[in-house]
Specification:
Layout lengths: L1 H13 L9 H50 L6 H4 L5 H8 L1
Length: about 100
């Protein structure tokens, strides 16, 4: 098996490539440097991202608390359905039981 495998590798090494490999190292180097640049940018912007999430959370909690606090103190106006609630079909069905 090993002799056959060695022969196959020798044949494979002797065949010409179907593509040019001249610029392969250059393209790999560019891709690596581009990825490193993106990683550095993301790492530099991480504190800004966390600060903006914290600000959004603080604003949401503050505005939600203010709205909830003002809703508690506001007296409710009687609506159209509140005045004649005893005439609702559900109330009529409950009286029949």
């Amino acid at each position: 098996m090993d002799d056959r495998l060695d022969q196959l590798f020798e044949r494979l090494a002797a065949t010409p490539t179907d593509r040019s490999m001249d610029l392969l190292d250059l393209e790999i180097g560019r891709a690596i440097s581009r990825r490193r640049g993106e990683t550095r940018t993301a790492a530099a912007l991480a504190p800004v991202r966390m600060a903006s999430v914290g600000m959004a959370l603080a604003m949401g909690v503050t505005v939600g608390g203010v709205i909830a606090a003002t809703a508690i103190g506001v007296p409710r106006q009687p609506g159209a359905f509140l005045l004649a609630g005893n005439l609702a079909p559900s109330a009529l069905l409950e009286d029949a039981r």
